[in-house]
Amino acid sequence: MAWRPLHALLRRLLDAWVEVRHCDPAPDTLALDPERPTLYVLPHRALSDRLLLESLCRRHGLPLDASLGSPAILTLPEARRRPWRRRRSPSPLVALAQRLEASPRAAPQLVPVSIFWGRAPGKRFGFWKLLAADSWALTGRLRRLLAVGVNGRSVEVVFGAPLRLGELHDPTRPELTSRKAGRLLRVHFRRVRTRVLGPDLSHRRTLIESVVASPEVRRAIDEAAGAQEQSRSRLTRRAQRYGREIASNMSYPVLRFMDQLLKRLWTRLYDGVEITGIESVKALAGDHTLVYVPCHRSHIDYLLLSYVLYHQGLMPPHIAAGRNLDMPVVGPLLRRGGAFFMRRSFRDNRLYAAVFDAYLHRLLAHGHALEYFIEGGRSRSGRQLAPRPGMLAMTLRSQARLIHEQRRPRPLAFVPVYFGYERVMENASYRRELAGEKKRKESPLALLGTLKRLREPFGQVTVAFGEPLILDAWLDERAPEWRRAVPQGRPAWLKQVLPTLGQALSRRINAAVRLNASNLVALAMLATPQRVIETPQLEHQLRLLARLGQGRPGEPLAPPEGSPADWIDHTERLGLIQRRPQALGELVVADADQATLLGWYRNNVLHGFALPGLVAFAFRNTSCHDAASLARGLRPIWPLLVRELAITPPEDLTTAITEQLGQLTALGLLEATDAGWQRPRALPDQAALDQLGALVEPFLARGFLLLTVLLRQPSGQATPQALADQGRQLAERLALLSGLPAPEFFDASLFAALLEGLEAEGWVWRDDDRVHYGATLQEAARHAQDLFDPALRQRLMLLAEAGDGNGQEAS
User: Fold this and answer.
1) Tens of pLDDT along 159-168?
2) Which of 54, 504, 529, 558 is at a distance of 20 to 30 A from 90, taking alpha carbons?
3) Helices (H), 564-696
4) Measuring CA to CA, which residue among 731, 727, 721 is closest to residue 706?
5) Per the domain annotation, does 351 fall within a domain?
6) Percent of the chain, pLDDT > 70?
7) Which residues on adjacent β-strands are paired with residue 465?
């Protein structure tokens, strides 16, 4: 009783000083049973936690009573007896279980509550450095007082799901009920702490020394000493230098500084940051090692993902960054924010490769979250780039090593992340690089030059977390021998699964796509012949695209808030289109530069509309189709489109096409007949159908040009490089003749990828660095040819013939 006035005073002081930065989930969303008593359980005894929880409960109207004769807030009993405590206080859970004997209907619900005063991950060194941090170490009274003073403005509270004690109750053994509840609560608290704080951080110098002393690095030093005739001590110092060049130096003060800085940046830069799918990540973070694999759209990606994770109560990951970002001022800041730097290529430097591989292995072995971009670099075209195998291969080898070493590692989960920008900061540089200009080197001065753009409108940005891929289960299904094989070198199972894994992750990234105003307007504008359209017609096309996205099988694409008129206004404010008033009605126009930029935003979401676009294109030249014949005609083309756009293919193409035909009919873009489906009779509907088909026309035109070039030569005559170069040149010529301001249409990498797709489907094969083909490809080309109207087909054929003549003259 004497303590109550003091507790009331302390509670008022806490209320005045403490600010709860993040509460997960929101207190008003807790699934509490109003018919049962509610008790809260804290993981350890701390007066500050108890007082803060009481204030939270009163502030949010949560039940806070002691109807069972016990305090409303309990402390989980210590799992081990401390040597300085002579007596161990009885567990309140035992007392609750005993009361259930007398009143079974009064079984309470236990709500576990974790409170974090600051979020510094612990380190295995130094007491004073972490004196005021909430870490894995024990917290004494003095240290807790300092933590409240230093971190009182950055408190996080995590509520767990209510635990019904009556469901665990054993009438014959009350102490067993207590043990079950205590075990479940301890597991919960451990998972929450792992999710929020992450594993302990080793001192950077200690980590580098352990990397250099690892068997794989020592073996690389011995090999280099024999091959290069250098001393082992000199090579050891070189390995240490590589380690310092690579290793991050995550610092909690820097994370807090970056949090405040980025909060102001996003507020000034964007209208808002929308987050979707984060709950699936939180469910895994407590007992899985997470590897985030985002798409790479902008330099902002690094900062944005770490900021979102930090604000959602998850530990920011260690980020693999290019060495080009390790520049003065910026590099040290990124390194303390969790970035570790890697060279673009180190295939010919075995010592560097061994150091980097050992460093990555130690991060994964300790359970640290990682982030890297499987595309390698930023996408200048806006589409998902083909995945590179390097980091994926090192991750798989590391997990296999942990299994082989019998460490029983935590399961590893890849988390795909999709970034959706309404306007990206690199607009101008991407346009220059697509036009052929060489990429400019990053520098602090160039970074300062971007600050003047902070007042420009950039709209909203979306961070969407896709379906996680649990690696161990995925490998067990596709390569069961991975657990038994010795993970040295490049095992056969690794070569087998790497392409499939990269493809699966790319598809999961794209499956998390979200629509915004820029995407939708870009899809509609670039489907018009001259990038000019009447405003009512544009609104109509936007409405059709939004309904198509909503009706997509699997995962519907929700349109942005507002109406098509709002989307047009918003895109105009972003500077991506222009309005031109005319006497007969307003026009919406995109000039050459704007059309190039719009291509980037269209490519972000084009994969979501590929199948309806392909079906619509099939009705451009042939007015009537039935589902079976249409599926036969599109079947040779569809796998190539799936590969280029990283689309998750439907289980059955014929069924998917039938569904698309029904959806287009419901939208008035097709008409159902006894023989199948036909083009609509109304001219506005025909125009809308043709615009939908124009979405995939660039892909089909590229494929047709490449096939024409290949089939005009005997099998086994052309090299892959010559075919890709000639296809690119013809595409560039077609773009210039047609007035298409789309440099990405004749991107050389797209032709190389298309050729790889033909090879993967078995239509071509290589022998002595020559491309061979057979009758199967000729038949597929004939089907593809039938999709084009005669005028366009004739134009492409004449273009290919002109290319043959120029090639012969050059030779």
Assistant:
1) 988 888 777 7
2) 54
3) 564-573, 592-605, 610-621, 627-634, 638-645, 653-666, 683-693
4) 727
5) yes
6) 84
7) 417
Q: Which residues contact 417 (CB under 8 A, 6 or more apart)?
A: 292, 293, 294, 295, 305, 463, 464, 465, 466, 509, 512
For residues 610 and 714, membership in a common domain is answered with no
The pair phi, psi for residue 443, each rounded to 5°, is: -155, 160
Q: How far apart are the first and last CA of the chain?
A: 101
The residue type of 68 is: L
Q: What is the pLDDT of residues 725-735, one digit of tens each?
A: 888 888 877 77
Q: Same structural domain for residues 416 and 449? A: yes
- Give the CA diameter of the chain: 103
- Round to whole Å and give the CA distance between 807 and 459: 47
Question: Peptide bond before 104: cis, by omega within 30 degrees of 0?
Answer: no
pLDDT at residue number 695: 92
Q: Which residue has the tokens 């993970």?
A: 487
pLDDT at 486: 66
CA-CA distance, 452 to 459, in Å (whole number)? 17
**Under a CB-based contact definition with an 8 Å cutoff, are residues 348 and 383 in contact?**
no
To the nearest 10 degrees (0 to 180), the angle between helices 517-525 and 592-605 is 120
DSSP 130: G
Q: Is residue 47 part of a domain?
A: yes
On the question of pLDDT at 85 being above 80, the answer is no
Q: Which domain holds residue 754?
A: 697-810
pLDDT category, 802, cuts 50, 70, 90?
A: low
**Same-domain status, 622 and 497:** no
Tell me the DSSP string of 500-546. Answer: HHHHHHHHHHHHT----HHHHHHHHHTTSTTSEEEHHHHHHHHHHHH
Kind and range of the H or E element at 591?
none
Q: Do 521 and 604 touch, CB atoms closer than 8 A?
A: no
Q: Does residue 16 form part of some domain?
A: yes
